[in-house]
Write a structure and sequence with these properties.
The protein is an alpha+beta fold and 168 residues long. Strands 1-4 form a two-stranded antiparallel ribbon. A two-stranded antiparallel sheet has the order 2-3. Helix 1 crosses helix 4.
């Protein structure tokens, strides 16, 4: 498992691949309690997603630490007006380590594309109404800056009680 002291960006390409392999297997065994010999694609996806989450968290903590040390102003914006899609592939591309993860999985006899298919489409898992219309809108303020200089308003549509589950 990766920590801030052995960040993935500081390793050579071969070392990155070995570290990713080891981290995925460790997550599979110690967090999910699964034997790598007898696992399903979903188990590999869960282990992979947790490794990516750990890396994202490490990078996020390093960024936040630098913001606090520099006393930098931060602006937060919360938007619920778009469909997320699949997050794993986006996270790997944003961290610029898709190739390393692809090679690590190939070394273990797996394909990133196959494992990525286990991730649910966030936009298709939400409930939608057969005759969609907002029942009512809820508005509440979300405070953006520490000094409350900027305020944003977020709207949430509440669906009617008759709803169906969207499929693929």
């Amino acid at each position: 498992m990766f920590t801030s002291k052995d960040s993935i960006s500081e390793l050579s390409s071969d070392d990155k691949i070995r570290a990713i392999e080891k981290s995925i297997v460790n997550h599979l065994i110690y967090l999910l309690g699964k034997d790598p010999v007898e696992t399903h694609q979903r188990d590999w996806f869960e282990a992979l997603a947790r490794v990516v989450r750990d890396l994202l968290t490490t990078q996020w903590m390093e960024s936040m630490r630098s913001y606090y040390l520099q006393d930098a102003k931060r602006v937060y914006y919360l938007s619920m007006e778009f469909l997320m899609g699949r997050a794993l592939g986006n996270a790997l591309r944003n961290m610029q380590c898709s190739n390393e993860f692809r090679h690590a999985l190939e070394e273990m006899g797996l394909r990133l594309e196959d494992i990525s298919q286990c991730e649910a489409e966030a936009g298709l898992a939400m409930e939608v109404s057969d005759d969609w219309r907002p029942a009512f809108w809820i508005h509440w303020p979300v405070w953006i800056c520490q000094d409350l200089a900027t305020v944003s308003v977020m709207s949430l549509a509440c669906l009617p009680s008759r709803s169906i589950r969207a499929g693929r």
